[in-house]
């Protein structure tokens, strides 16, 4: 029931934010507090909560985790902090940086925050702690892509990778500045057959058992393909088709960048379908959809926007209900807090 009330609160705050600017400011503040507190004060939920607790309690010997995550936790432990403090610290950093990213680039701040929750990126941070804090740091640095300060961008990317090495793939963001629409159309069309092809089985068949990360492809956790994964692909691919139709409306460089990135991330999602390890690699690109959807809505005719907005919000709510309330979003249901565990 907790996540039902959470959904209702998100919808109400979204509606209240539409009334006037004063209520918008209050709604934003409440949203930020809500997101940080629910994530920061969680207890025992998520597939990796106790794994991270073990790592924290044995952090001096945990050399297999990335150095950024390791040394931050060493510092926290040196200060006498409990594991609960580590959870709160990373929840705060991740959510604040992602909210900063949304504030910088979304034309509809509250809508994008709601999408951040409804599309599960918020709940992913309960499990993929290192990866999501790395993505949050990385996204704080993409401003340097737009400023053409590429060395700074690469330095921020390297800093983010200290928390999760997969973030290095984010350097491909630079390719999305190339304004060649045919390239993105070809990549997207090429990716569509992979939605139904058994890529996971092919990878497992040809992957040598000695490969260090083979376990991630063969374990039951990563080989299970959720029905939600198929559901998640329908709307993005539909919007890619619509985006090519409305492409002339994206005339600013930053708008074209978000369009290109959305098409690229959708193609990546198609290619990765059924391979959860690759799906996780795509998080750094796919999270751009929370910026793209409000941008796309702004490009359609004014009288159509309310209808399209409500239809999209309805789909996002259904996705949330299916993935979080029904399926549990990989162990986040039921919610438990350090205050009432």
Low-confidence stretches: 220-225
Major sheet attributes: none
User: What order do the SSEs take from the amino end to the carboxyl end, as H and E?
Assistant: HHHHHHHHHHHHHHHHHHHH
Radius of gyration: 20 Å
Helix fraction bin:
55-70%
Mean pLDDT metric: 85
Give the tally of β-strands.
0
Structural class: mainly alpha
Transmembrane segments: 23-45, 83-101, 113-146, 152-176, 183-207, 227-245, 257-275, 281-298, 310-329
Keywords: Membrane, Transmembrane, Transmembrane helix
InterPro entries: EpsG-like
Protein name: EpsG family protein
Task: Give a written overview of the molecule.
With 341 residues, the chain is an all-alpha fold. The protein folds into two domains: 155 residues, no CATH class; 122 residues, no CATH class. Helix 1 packs antiparallel against helix 6, helix 7 packs across helix 8 and helix 16 crosses helix 19. The protein is globular. The protein starts with a helix and ends in a 15-residue tail after the last helix. About 2% of the residues have low confidence.
Summarize the structure in short.
The chain is mainly alpha-helical and 341 residues long. The protein has 20 helices and no strands.
Key attributes of the depicted protein:
341 residues; mainly alpha; globular; membrane; EpsG-like; transmembrane; transmembrane helix
Write the topology of this structure.
Blueprint lengths: L1 H15 L4 H20 L8 H9 L9 H12 L4 H23 L3 H10 L2 H7 L1 H12 L2 H4 L3 H12 L19 H11 L7 H8 L7 H5 L1 H4 L3 H19 L7 H20 L3 H6 L1 H4 L2 H11 L5 H22 L15
Protein name: EpsG family protein
Pfam families: EpsG
Keywords: Membrane, Transmembrane, Transmembrane helix
């Amino acid at each position: 029931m907790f996540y039902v009330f959470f959904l209702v609160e998100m919808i109400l705050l979204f509606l209240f934010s539409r009334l006037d600017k004063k209520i918008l400011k209050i709604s934003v503040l409440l949203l930020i507090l809500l997101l940080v507190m629910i994530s920061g004060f969680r207890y025992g939920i998520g597939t990796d909560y106790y794994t991270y607790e073990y790592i924290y309690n044995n952090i001096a010997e945990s050399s297999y985790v990335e150095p950024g995550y390791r040394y931050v936790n060493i510092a926290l432990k040196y200060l006498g902090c409990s594991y609960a403090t580590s959870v709160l610290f990373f929840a705060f950093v991740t959510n604040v940086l992602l909210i900063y990213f949304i504030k910088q680039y979304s034309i509809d701040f509250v809508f994008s925050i709601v999408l951040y929750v409804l599309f599960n990126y918020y709940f992913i941070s309960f499990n993929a702690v290192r990866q999501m804090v790395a993505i949050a740091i990385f996204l704080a640095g993409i401003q340097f892509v737009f400023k053409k300060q590429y060395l700074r961008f690469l330095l921020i990317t390297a800093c983010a990778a200290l928390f999760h090495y997969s973030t290095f793939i984010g350097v491909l963001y630079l390719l999305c500045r190339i304004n060649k629409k045919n390239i993105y159309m070809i990549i997207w069309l090429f990716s569509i057959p992979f939605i139904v092809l058994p890529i996971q089985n092919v990878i497992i068949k040809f992957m040598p058992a000695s490969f260090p990360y083979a376990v991630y492809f063969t374990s039951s956790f990563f080989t299970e393909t959720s029905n939600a994964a198929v559901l998640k692909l329908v709307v993005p691919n539909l919007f890619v088709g619509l985006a090519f139709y409305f492409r002339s409306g994206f005339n600013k460089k930053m708008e074209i960048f978000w369009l290109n990135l959305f098409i690229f991330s959708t193609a990546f999602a198609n290619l990765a379908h059924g391979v959860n390890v690759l799906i996780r690699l795509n998080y750094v690109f796919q999270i751009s959809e929370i910026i793209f959807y409000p941008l796309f809505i702004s490009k359609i005719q004014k009288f159509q926007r309310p209808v399209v907005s409500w239809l999209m919000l309805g789909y996002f709510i259904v996705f949330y209900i299916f993935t979080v309330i029904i399926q549990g979003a990989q162990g986040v249901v039921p919610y438990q807090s350090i205050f009432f565990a």
